[in-house]
Design a protein that fits this description.
Largest sheet: none
Helix content: 55-70%
Number of helices: 2
Number of strands: 0
Order of helices and strands: HH
Structural class: mainly alpha
Radius of gyration: 15 Å
Amino acid sequence: MSIRNNSNRLLNPIAKQAMDKFKLEVAESLNISNDYKSGYWGNLTSRECGSVGGEMVKRMIQDYENKIANQK
């Protein structure tokens, strides 16, 4: 049996607080259930958690594209 190696780590550990804050902002903007405010996400559905993660990625890509566009 192999041991699962969690590769879902931040490259910059200092960014953890900022990413947590970002996750909460996205969750609030999507109007998902308020269960996430306790810090425990286990009561949320997979759909709700996926929506938050997907929206975070969408916003990060949009921010990066804007950054690149403004450099040229």
